[in-house]
């Protein structure tokens, strides 16, 4: 990426363009209004809408943010559909191209992070433990579910050993699973690539298995559980979740859609270590465990090597970056990125077809956003 060039200072981050440039054909921006009062954000949780501030009010470089907003609106990154930045609880950049703040965005594989949070809620409520063997949750499947030593934590880390091909089209693929009459029965029939915890394999099957566990311990579908245990406390009211069989089992690996501002709420929950107002949603220890570097160096996207924890990605440590940066990542360019040391949440949505374009948000994070956060 070329270096960001400073533009003339502007009053509003989303309206900064050079006077000699023609008006852009991008849709109207949702303008950022200056904050009338400032705090450090540690005691703030958003209500119906996010509060806003000019970048300079919360220690973000105004010229860099103005340039970034301009570049998004001019489709410099044509696969980027929206980009939001929250600093200290203030929304400081709020850009949409070909979409709106109200439109539901498919999280794709970032859905798995929500699955991890839901399992954390169930653990906080005493309904399950990470060390629990999963066979006890599926007595109705008899011997099919009794031949494995998989525990809940193996599924969270995507180290279950289940023979599952996320992207293929064969008999052990996600495509075959979604066409089956019983998703859990299908997962029990695919066999194993090896013993649990031996190797990492990205698997929506592991996430879907956890949806079955959640149904077993709560008595309701994971999407219904999410509605009152996670979404309602965070103020999330609009979403869709694709479901299958049995018992309306949600597609826990890819099937959730949220608005971009509500995606930021999930990031903010993780930034605040699982707390939302006076309500502990998940414990700080659970959030830290999701972000543990359990499977190092498992993917490389656009030159960035990522580790995997428990339904959460750990981002590379580079100069001036945070060793604890984590992300929910969805194919196509869906990102919820948390940077604790800078008190930042970044949300991006996209429609990329290639891995390189999928990782555009990482390039913006390292080249523009983190350097701009003082």
Task: Write a structural description.
The chain has eleven helices and 15 strands. It is an alpha+beta fold. It has two domains: 13-102 and 260-372, DD-peptidase/beta-lactamase superfamily (Beta-lactamase, 3-Layer(aba) Sandwich), CATH 3.40.710; 108-250, Beta-lactamase (3-Layer(aba) Sandwich), CATH 3.40.710.10. The strands form four sheets. Strands 2-1-15-14-13-12-11-10 form an eight-stranded antiparallel sheet, with helices on both faces. Strands 3-7-4 form a three-stranded antiparallel sheet. The longest helix is centred in the middle third of the chain and has 15 residues, at 204-218.
Please summarize what this structure is:
The protein contains eleven helices and 15 strands.
Order of helices and strands: HEEEHHHHHHEEEEHEEHEEEEEEHH
Overall helicity? 25-40%
The rounded Rg comes to 21 Å
According to CATH, what is the topology of the largest domain?
Beta-lactamase
Mean pLDDT: 90
User: What would you say the CATH architecture of the largest domain is?
Assistant: 3-Layer(aba) Sandwich
CATH superfamily of the largest domain: DD-peptidase/beta-lactamase superfamily
Number of domains: 2
Largest sheet: 8 strands, antiparallel
Q: Give the percentage of residues in beta strands.
A: 15-25%
Shape: globular
Distance between the termini: 21 Å
Coarse structural class: alpha+beta
Number of strands: 15
Q: Main sheet: which strands, in order across?
A: 2-1-15-14-13-12-11-10
Quaternary structure annotation? single chain
Low-confidence stretches: 1-27
Total helical segments: 11
> What is the top-level CATH class of the largest domain?
Alpha Beta
């Amino acid at each position: 990426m070329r270096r960001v060039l400073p533009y003339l200072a502007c009053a509003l981050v989303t309206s900064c363009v050079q006077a000699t440039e023609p008006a852009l054909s991008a849709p109207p921006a949702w303008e950022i209004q200056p904050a009338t009062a400032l705090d450090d954000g540690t005691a703030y949780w958003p209500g119906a809408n996010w509060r806003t501030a000019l970048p300079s009010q919360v220690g973000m470089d105004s010229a860099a943010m103005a340039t970034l907003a301009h570049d998004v609106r001019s489709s410099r990154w044509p696969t980027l559909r929206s980009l939001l930045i929250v600093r200290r609880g203030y929304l400081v950049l709020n850009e949409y191209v070909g979409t709106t703040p109200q439109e539901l965005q498919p999280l794709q594989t970032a859905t798995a992070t929500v699955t991890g949070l839901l399992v954390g809620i169930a653990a906080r409520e005493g309904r399950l433990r990470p060390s629990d063997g999963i066979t006890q949750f599926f007595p109705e499947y008899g011997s099919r579910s009794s031949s494995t030593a998989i525990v809940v934590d193996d599924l969270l880390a995507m180290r279950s050993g289940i023979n599952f091909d996320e992207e293929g089209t064969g008999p052990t693929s996600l495509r075959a699973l979604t066409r089956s009459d019983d998703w859990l029965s299908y997962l029990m029939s695919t066999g194993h690539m090896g013993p649990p915890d031996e190797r990492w394999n990205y698997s929506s099957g592991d996430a879907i298995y956890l949806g079955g566990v959640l149904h077993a311990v709560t008595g309701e579908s994971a999407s219904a559980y999410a509605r009152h245990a996670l979404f309602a406390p965070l103020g999330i009211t609009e979403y869709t979740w694709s479901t299958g069989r049995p018992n309306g089992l949600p597609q826990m690996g890819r099937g959730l859609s949220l608005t971009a501002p509500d995606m930021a709420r999930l990031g903010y929950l993780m930034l605040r270590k699982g707390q939302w107002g006076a309500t502990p949603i998940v414990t700080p220890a659970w959030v830290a465990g999701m972000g543990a570097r359990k499977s190092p160096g498992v993917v490389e996207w656009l030159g960035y090597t990522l580790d995997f924890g428990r339904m959460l990605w750990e981002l590379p440590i580079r100069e001036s970056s945070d060793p604890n940066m984590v992300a929910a990542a969805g194919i196509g360019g869906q990102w919820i990125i948390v940077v604790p040391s800078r008190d930042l949440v970044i949300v991006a949505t996209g429609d990329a077809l290639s891995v390189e374009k999928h990782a555009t948000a990482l390039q913006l994070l390292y080249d523009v956003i983190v350097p701009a956060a003082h």
